[in-house]
Structures are given as C-alpha cells and as structure tokens.
C-alpha cells in the first residue's frame, strides 16, 4: 500500500538515508560504550563502569527509535555490522585503551553522533518532517549532554 503522509518518496528516501547513518553511528557508539563498560580498569573503575552502563542502555533504546522512524518513512533500516561499517563515521578500535582514552573516544563518538544528526536537518526541513526533527533534536540534546559529562571527567 502506498505511503501518503504528506512527504513525497524522494524526500522520505533522503531522510531515511540520513537516519540510516545516524542509526549506524548510534549502534557503533553503543557497541564501543558496551565494550568499554566490560573492559574499563583503574581508579575510576566503579564510576566509569556504571556511567558506561547507563550510556549504553540509553543508546540501545535510541537505535530502536531511529530504526522505527526509518520504517515509518517506508524504507528498510540497516541492521548488520557490514551495513553499519559502511555507514558509520565512528571508527572502531583494536585492543583495550586505558580509562582516560576510553573517555576521550566516547566524547568523540558522542560528538560524531551530534554532527550526523545535525546533517539530516536540511532534508527534514525541506520536507517539513516534524516527527523526524523532534527525534533529531532529542538525540542531539542527549549526546551533547553526555559529551559534556564525559569531558568533565577529563578536567584537570
């Protein structure tokens, strides 16, 4: 059945493509955060272990919201490591960094997700897609706040 939500297919496709990149970045950040939760060590272990758990749980919920928005626009959501690897702007790392480097990498990842979300706005604005604009705004607020909190741990 055709989709008739007031946004033409070409615009829905452009938005879905941008959201697919956001989904890939969010999932990659989720995986990195979960990995760091498992592997963090050192004097800040308890604080970081709990903080990373809170963050990866929030990201797990976010990937579902983003994927469901892509589906509501009428397109399949990417859902494989292969697809995420091609779409994500966040690099995965080998090995286990020290706690302070974990924090730095997560700040960079949070900021990358914000940049990706921000990049979708021109297509969203053009199509007057308020539900996606709301989703993007909420995601940006979460990631900007999380980046600030992580950066605060690095202050000397």
Describe the protein.
By secondary structure, the chain is mainly α. It has a single domain, classed as Up-down Bundle (Ferritin). Helices cover 76% and strands 0% of the residues. It is built from five helices and no strands. Helix 1 packs across helix 3 and helix 2 packs antiparallel against helix 5. The radius of gyration is 17 Å and the shape is elongated. It starts with 8 loop residues before the first helix and ends with a helix. The model has no long low-confidence stretch (mean pLDDT 97).
CATH architecture: Up-down Bundle
CATH class placement: Mainly Alpha
- From the helix content, strand content and strand pairing, which structural class follows? mainly alpha
> Could you tell me how far the N terminus lies from the C terminus, measured between alpha carbons in angstroms?
58 Å
- Oligomeric state of the chains in view: single chain
Discrete helix count: 5
The shape is: elongated
Overall mean confidence score, pLDDT: 97
Instruction: Give the helix level as a range of percent.
Output: over 70%
- Give the CATH topology: Ferritin
- N-to-C SSE series? HHHHH
Fourth-tier CATH superfamily name: Ferritin, core subunit, four-helix bundle
Q: Give the DSSP E fraction (strand runs of 2 or more residues).
A: under 5%
Number of β-strand runs: 0
Low-confidence stretches: none
Largest sheet, in brief, is: none
Radius of gyration: 17 Å
């Amino acid at each position: 059945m055709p989709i008739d939500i007031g946004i033409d297919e070409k615009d829905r496709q452009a938005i879905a493509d941008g959201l697919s990149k956001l989904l890939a970045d969010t999932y990659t950040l989720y995986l990195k955060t979960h990995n760091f939760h498992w592997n963090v060590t050192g004097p800040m272990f308890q604080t970081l272990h709990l903080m990373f758990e809170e963050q990866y749980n929030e990201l797990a919920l976010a990937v579902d919201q983003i994927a469901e928005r892509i589906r509501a626009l009428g397109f399949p959501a990417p859902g494989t490591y292969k697809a995420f690897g091609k779409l994500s702007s966040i690099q995965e790392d080998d090995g286990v960094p020290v706690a302070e480097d974990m924090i730095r990498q997560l700040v960079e990842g949070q900021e990358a997700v914000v940049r990706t979300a921000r990049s979708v706005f021109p297509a969203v604005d053009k199509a007057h897609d308020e539900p996606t604009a709301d989703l993007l705004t909420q995601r940006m607020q979460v990631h900007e706040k999380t980046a600030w909190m992580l950066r605060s741990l690095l202050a000397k």
